[in-house]
Specification:
Blueprint (H helix, E strand, L loop, with lengths): L8 H20 L2 H5 L5 H12 L3 H15 L4 H34 L3 H8 L5 H17 L4 H13 L4
Helix pairs in contact: 1-3, 1-4, 3-4, 5-8, 7-8
């Protein structure tokens, strides 16, 4: 390999730092997700050990060791799995915000129920209307938000966000 074909020292250092950052993400994963990844035993043991370390300096050294072990592993499948989990999580947040937006609109605008019925003809309008009325009454009389929560659950089931 000629000198022109080799990556620069800066590029090699960046790759090493990227692998160490990926190792840090592995340390922050929960046990179920970590076990779902196909990691070599030495790397899995190093990640498990890093979770137990409380000393800042010892943890830093352990993360560097994980980065070194990561050099012998293909990072593409690990990155793909992490991205998949992030995308799923992001989708769940967006779905929750969509349900909350409908609930807010139903409580603030009387025409919102008609819009909801137009968008989702299968909606039980009477049930949603009674939940809205009860939620507004709870808010006005400072009662616990039972209907407010029930409205959220009904909208979540309707919008398929369960």
């Amino acid at each position: 390999m000629s000198e022109a074909d080799r990556p620069s020292k800066t590029r090699r250092k960046k790759e090493v730092h990227d692998l160490q950052a990926l190792g840090e993400e592995l340390v922050s994963l929960d046990d179920d997700r970590l076990s779902g990844l196909d990691l070599p035993e030495r790397l899995r043991d190093a990640v498990t050990e890093a979770r137990r370390i409380r000393s800042h300096e010892a943890r830093r050294r352990q993360l560097q060791y994980i980065g070194k072990l990561m050099r012998g592993v293909d990072p593409a499948p690990i990155r793909a799995a992490l991205e998949g989990w992030r995308a799923r999580s992001h989708g769940q947040v967006l779905a929750q915000k969509r349900v909350e937006a409908w609930r807010r609109r139903l409580l603030e605008d009387e025409r919102a129920l008609g819009e909801l019925m137009a968008a989702h003809p299968e909606v039980d309008a009477g049930h949603i209307r009674s939940l809205v009325i009860d939620a507004l009454h709870e808010r006005k009389t400072h009662q616990p938000p039972r209907a407010f929560r029930a409205l959220y659950q009904a909208l979540r089931a309707l919008l398929g966000e369960a």
